[in-house]
Amino acid sequence: MKAGEDMEKIITSKGLIYEYYTHNDKGEIESKHRALDELNLEIQKGQFVVILGHNGSGKSTLAKHMNAILHPTGGTLLIKGMDVKDQKNLWDIRQTAGMVFQNPDNQIIAAIVEEDVAFGPENLGIEPKEIRKRVDESINAVQMAEYMTHSPNLLSGGQKQRIAIAGVLAMKPECIILDEPTAMLDPVGRKEVLETIYRLNKKENITIIHITHYMEEAIKADRVVVMDRGKIVMDDTPRKIFSQVEKLKELGLDVPQVTELAFYMQKQGINISTEILTIEEMVDEIWQLNSRK
Amino acid sequence: MAIKFEKVTHVYSKGTPFEKIALNNINIHIKKGEFVGIIGHTGSGKSTLIQHFNGLLKPTEGTITVLGKKLNDKDTSLKEIRQKVGLVFQYPEHQLFEMTIFKDVAFGPQNMGLSKEEVEARVKEALDMVGIKEDMYEKSPFELSGGQKRRVAIAGVLAMKPEILVLDEPTAGLDPKGRDEILTQIQRLHKTLGITVILVSHSMEDIAKLVDRIIVMHKGKVALNGAPVSVFEHVEELEKMGLAAPQIMYIMKALKEKGLDVSTNILTVEEGAKEIASILKKQK
């Protein structure tokens, strides 16, 4: 990790706890669940962080805290120094850390694409000229310019998701949290969304926190955080994380196909590292193994 | 023959400025007992296509025959067709609504007017098939994990004893373990019950692992149709359509292009590892 102390922290979580109760028919408390269990996490500004974890590991609960949708039961969570527990920070937090959800149908509100994207900045009281500029830029960034004046409900799921991302972009956030934004997309739709968020990260220095079940999407991240039972159980570079094939499988996760191939080749008695992430690396590695014979 | 499409066209919002041809002169034959995968980018017409399988949508033109019955015949009971063609939509767990898992799965067979005993037997059988144990029956479906919820939703369709099971992206949003669970169950259902299974998916890896035949939809037409190995050979065409081949095929192809004598007819990582290992060992 780069020298942390000097860099601005966008997310600081200390001993973060979130508990909820289930009630029976009579409204009595039946059981208590701890979705976040004294979780510690720091994310520096400008990082691209992928969060992995099986369904129910607490990823989405954590994401909802970062956007002040949920409030901690215990511990603290600061977004750019602002405490999520303090109600007066609510709007500043949401403007700093924008959120994109899994299901685009729940995020689109206007009857025309450009109006939907303009909704955020309009609510911030921004000048019409500036709104127009932001809407155009945001829609171009997600490659949906040709649908500018279409009705969102005639778009496919993937197209809607890109509009939802544009809507967040138009707020000019410092950090975007994406909770499985690609779950419903086809391979190219997925690639476009990923290229968009990587570009936003590199060019605009927007911090990206990307939650996904597609291991391939984590390959180029700066950092991969793995959650289990409300805690962070692994936190490292993608290469170091994915080389631990068996540990990940125990956690109900997977590895990119390339790494899995290396893992199976080891089982076939081939001496190959599992720290391989891309097709090019794999082809080179096999080529070298072959020429050494 | 399970499903036959003859020159089927479907036009949305016909006669309005938003008119869109979703299916354009489609001809499809799906045999009984086949396991067919349907792939296509978002908006290619996949979902429109499968909603024709049980008469939820009616074709603008053309004829659809399902299990020997023409859907546009006045004598054809769509209710009967919908029992025989079980459709599992995207995110089927959003359709769970009952207080208990048992009641939720029982809803379909109860509506078929079956006896209490028959309903009970079917619910047990269906839940057993998706790996939900008896001690869970009285739990609320909303207490379950994502993968479990989805399996309960699938059981609700299986309890109708469909002859054709259609699943629209059954693994979207599930973690890898949940995904593998669902796919293993689907594969088992196909093998043990011998029913026709049609799987719509964006995961080329899943499709490659499971199906006998792939139908590729593009712009409302059938662009490719054949065995996985032969469909995935058309990598460039697939990419132009917003799709891809499974990653392992790219690796095998790249190795071949570099001059390593490997087979490129490889669909799964396990097969690939064996193939590469055998080549590396051979030259020792």
Brief summary:
The complex is a heterodimer of chains A (293) and B (284). Chain A is of the alpha/beta class. Chain A has 10 helices and 10 strands.
Blueprint of the fold:
The complex is a heterodimer of chains A (293) and B (284).
Chain A: E1 9-23, E2 29-44, E3 48-52, H1 59-66, E4 74-79, E5 82-83, H2 90-96, E6 97-100, H3 113-123, H4 128-141, H5 157-169, E7 175-179, H6 187-204, E8 207-211, E9 223-228, E10 231-236, H7 238-242, H8 245-250, H9 257-267, H10 279-292
Parallel strand pairs in A: 3-8, 3-9, 6-7, 7-8
Antiparallel strand pairs in A: 1-2, 1-4, 4-5, 9-10
Helix pairs in contact in A: 3-4, 3-5, 4-5
Chain B: E1 3-12, E2 20-30, E3 35-39, H1 46-53, E4 61-66, E5 69-70, H2 78-84, E6 85-88, H3 101-111, H4 116-129, H5 146-158, E7 164-168, H6 176-193, E8 196-200, H7 204-210, E9 213-218, E10 221-226, H8 228-232, H9 235-240, H10 247-258, H11 269-282
Helix pairs in contact in B: 3-4, 3-5, 4-5, 5-6
Q: Strand-residue fraction of chain B?
A: 15-25%
Name the poorly predicted regions of chain B: none
Mean pLDDT of chain A: 90
How large is the count of helical segments of chain B? 11
Q: Which CATH class of chain A applies here?
A: Alpha Beta
What is the typical, i.e. mean, pLDDT of chain B?
91
**Could you say what the CATH topology of the largest domain in chain B is called?**
Rossmann fold
General shape of chain A: globular
SSE ordering of chain A: EEEHEEHEHHHEHEEEHHHH
Tell me what the CATH architecture of chain A is: 3-Layer(aba) Sandwich
